[in-house]
Amino acid sequence: VPGKRHLDEDDASVSWRKRKKHFFILSNSGKPIYSRYGDEHKLAGFSATLQAIISFVENGGDRVKLVRAGKHQVIFLVKGPIYLVCISCTEEPYESLRGQLELVYGQMIVILTKSVNRCFEKNSKFDMTPLLGGTDGVFSSLIHSFSWNPATFLHAYTCLPLAYATRQAAGAILQDVADSGVLFAILMCKHKVISLVGAQKASLHPDDMLLLSNFVMSSESFRTSESFSPICLPRYNPMAFLYAYVHYLDVDTYLMLLTTSSDAFFHLKDCRIRIEMVLLKSNVLSEVQRSMLDGGMHVEDLPADPSPRSGTSSPHLGQPRFSTDSPEGFREAFVGIGGPAGLWHFIYRSIYLDQYVSSEFSSPINSSRQQKRLYRAYQKLYASMHDKSIGPHKTQFRRDENYVLLCWVTQDFELYAAFDPLAHKALAIKTCNRVCQWVKDVENEIFLLGASPFSW
């Protein structure tokens, strides 16, 4: 994702006004700090208008959260002296867009820490843009991820599928390093976790992992050489910097070692050399490359309906609420282009582990536009399932011209599944039970087990 796009645009440009989703950061004095599209300095008048709306409502003893104007929603988020605004006509739920503003604010805190507020206390007209110089690509990458990365609304992370022994080998050497004074040791491949280890009682929120990995992947400087950089983890401690040693082991795989010490570079460099040696000797890096080529779970590979296992007491969707007895004419005969019973895609989130697994996209959801549409459908489903004013709900079944969507929430997991719009309800329910059993059967390979200390 490139950095700032369409720099020539401003609020007078027709093209700027036609953009479907804008993000703005401004100060409480109306100074523009960041804009997704156009040059911030050319948008000074527009930023002042947004600031005036917020101030006007606050002066009346209230707080503005949402303004609807035709097809557009204007969402406001006030964080002390920092104002964040999203203007969208994408029909995403308010909760989702507000959550995205929280993440944009979190990304700013990763770079600056919350102590930047003190600068505004000393000088209300403080200009923050120089402090964020060169980070346009970081924000652009994060905003782009709102269209494809389920972690942005699930608040969970995903792991690269690996054999249990391979992940254990990576975890063992990271644990050795954590015992030598490293706060967090994280090994990742793109946005997927290979292994992570934390010092005793140190807890890492999935949102912090999302923002940290986005910061590393969207900053070119981390790719070209080993780096030692101050970073902040908003959920861990928003007021203080940690120090991150970052090194790419190959084009997609990188190691992050986090410490509280500003002079630990050489110690962390030695740790990295030890880690890299062990990863090469135990073939972890070659296994990572193989996993990248093979991909994850494919709906076409969903195992046949397993016979009842003795001693298993896992819940079944549709019992007793729905009957899963399929009519004779539909018995396993309905196989769509994807998996059994027209299954096209699924996301399974383990509540205990704060991890999720998402099946690979396959036909007919093989274009980026179709994938984005399904992502937005999941987003709406998630928001409605967790709507506190009318819920929470346990199951939901939706059918429209694009999909059958089925969601199932228990105390242990959440399952979101998309089927062919002509899929039979009873078979879809039966297939969801099979997906849950499949995930349970391969959990050693798709999840980082024993990671409960990282729950928040």
From TrEMBL:
Residues 342-442 form the FUZ/MON1/HPS1 third Longin domain. One of its GO terms (biological process) is vesicle-mediated transport. Residues 309-325 have a biased composition (Polar residues). Residues 297-325 are annotated as: Disordered. Residues 21-142 form the FUZ/MON1/HPS1 first Longin domain. InterPro entries: FUZ/MON1/HPS1_longin_1, FUZ/MON1/HPS1_longin_2, FUZ/MON1/HPS1_longin_3, Mon1. Residues 181-274 form the FUZ/MON1/HPS1 second Longin domain. It holds the Pfam family Fuz_longin_1. PANTHER family: SAND PROTEIN-RELATED, VACUOLAR FUSION PROTEIN MON1 HOMOLOG. Plays an important role in membrane trafficking through the secretory apparatus. Belongs to the MON1/SAND family. This is Vacuolar fusion protein MON1 homolog.
